[in-house]
Design brief:
heterodimer; A: mainly beta; globular; B: 6-stranded mixed beta sheet
């Protein structure tokens, strides 16, 4: 199993450009999450999904959009990148069994710089 | 809302000595608590979790955590630190809607 993979690993954008980050998991997990990590702030939830075709806003959703057209993929889009979106982005997934408190599995991260 | 706090930005310990990384929580209802570790340029890895039951939880790589309800704490511990334990450690609590809320993280430096 590859677990959770993220594409690309690094990216540099200019202000106003758009891009899509791809997250894929091969564990048949129901739940998927997108976080951003900034120094001294831990991980903050951007958007998440509780199943194929569903999405929901997290703590810091502004400036981002997501889609979950297939169960194994969760896409994070930046329509018009801003320097404030310079960060490391992590995707995670977890089992969705009813009443489950299973841990989340994380991808390796995408380092995004917006100039 | 559920929250966790990690009061120390950095913890320094000598190899072979015991280590403690602190975490306190604030929740409505029963807490579901987690510890994760992040090595440089890597994603987070799960260490252990507390759901119910025994207050001392054992996890990966020889780590354990002690749940203390009266002090609302969930400190991460290891009896004998290794240089390879040097990393960034996150405490997290389950929030409503199957989400996790993370602390700011604590850098652990183990010196030989």
């Amino acid at each position: 199993n590859a677990g959770v993979t993220q594409t690309p690993k690094f990216r540099v954008l200019k202000t106003g450009q758009s891009m899509t980050l791809l997250c894929a998991q091969d564990m048949n997990h129901e739940y998927m999450y997108w976080y951003r990590q900034d120094p001294g702030m831990g991980l903050r939830l951007i958007h998440y999904s509780v199943g194929e075709g569903t999405t929901a806003k997290g703590e810091v959703p502004d400036g981002y959009n997501v889609s979950r057209l297939k169960k194994q993929n969760f896409l994070l889009g930046l329509e018009s990148a801003a320097p404030s979106q310079t960060s490391v982005y992590f995707c995670a997934s977890r089992d969705g069994l009813a009443g489950s408190n299973n841990e989340q599995f994380f991808g390796p991260g995408t380092r995004l710089t917006v100039l | 809302a559920q929250s966790v706090a990690q009061p120390e930005d950095q913890v320094n310990v000598a190899e072979g000595n015991p280590l403690t990384v602190k975490c306190t929580y604030s929740v409505s209802g029963n807490p579901y608590l987690f510890w994760y570790v992040q090595y440089p340029n890597r994603g987070l890895q799960f260490l252990l979790k507390y759901i119910t039951g025994d207050n001392l939880v054992k996890g990966s790589y020889g780590f354990e955590a002690e749940f203390n309800k009266s002090q609302t704490s969930f400190h991460l511990k290891k009896p004998s630190a290794l240089v390879s334990d040097s990393a960034l450690y996150f405490c997290a609590v389950r929030d409503y809607g199957n989400k996790l809320v993370f602390g700011a993280g604590t850098i652990l430096r183990v010196k030989s």
